[in-house]
Design brief:
Elements lengths: L3 E5 L4 H12 L3 E6 L9 E4 L5 H14 L4 E4 L14 H29 L2 E6 L11 H21 L4 E8 L5 H4 L7 H9 L8 H12 L10 E4 L11
Parallel strand pairs: 1-2, 1-4, 2-3, 4-5, 5-6, 6-7
Helix pairs in contact: 1-7, 2-3, 3-4
């Protein structure tokens, strides 16, 4: 069987690393993001995932050209604010980006997955789904991913389609460094407070995604795998 993966945000960070891991398996990979990535061998499709109309048209176009077997919704932003400064607009933006775009794209890819009786739908959520300071909109939308994935897992299991979530803790990416200055005392202090004594890398997260994406991982669905160095056990504020 040939495998084709669509990764949102596959142009950089975790998404780009995951795209390379899938290419090494011989899978076809499509990155869906606002900007083209540098990785060779990946089909780069430009789309603003915060625009529902753009997502709908891109989803239909991709479904017409590809028999998608794997969909990874990895793209995301944080929009950090304390509760006094959080806004309904923050909620709307992140709900569309983290949840609405995932729904539209999954709906477009489902006919091919059901026809092949095989599919892997994966979400990149966050340890912040359990709560984190300054994360009102982010935590809400990431927690929504977990609930939505569990619901889809129940509905799609009979079709050979699994739905799972990877929930990273603090990972050394541009998103992280947008909150915590790179190589700062704050970064070092946070690393020391992670139970395993270090911050995560994109490779840590990629390995988790590849485990759940494996064609042999058909008996795992509706699950959330925290890749957080133990941060989900207690409170590790950023």
């Amino acid at each position: 069987m040939d495998y084709t993966a669509v990764i949102t945000g596959g142009n950089k960070g975790i998404g780009a690393d995951l795209a390379q891991a899938m290419l090494q398996r011989g899978w076809q990979v499509v990155s869906l993001a606002r900007h083209k990535g540098e990785a060779e061998g990946v089909e780069h499709v430009i789309c603003d995932l915060s625009d529902p109309d753009a997502v709908a048209s891109t989803a239909a176009e991709l479904a017409a050209r590809h028999q998608v077997t794997h969909f990874v919704h990895n793209a995301g932003i944080i929009l950090p604010n304390l509760i006094e400064d959080a806004t309904p607009q923050d909620m709307q933006v992140l709900t569309q980006l983290h949840l609405g775009a995932a729904l539209t794209l999954t709906q477009a890819f489902l006919p091919a997955m059901k026809a092949q009786r095989f599919g892997r739908v994966l979400f990149n959520a966050s340890r912040a789904a359990l709560g984190a300071r300054t994360r009102t909109a982010y935590s809400a939308s990431k927690a929504g991913m977990i609930g939505m994935a569990r619901t889809w897992a129940l509905e799609l299991a009979e079709h050979g389609i699994t739905v799972n979530v990877v929930a990273p803790g603090p990972i050394l990416t541009d998103n992280f460094w947008g909150i915590v200055p790179k190589d700062s005392p704050q970064q070092q202090d946070l690393a020391q407070r992670i139970p395993v004594g270090r911050l995560g890398t994109v490779a840590d997260v990629t390995r988790a995604f590849m485990f759940l994406a494996d064609p042999e991982a058909g008996f795992i669905t509706g699950q959330t795998l925290f890749v957080c160095g133990g941060a989900s056990i207690g409170t590790v504020p950023i």
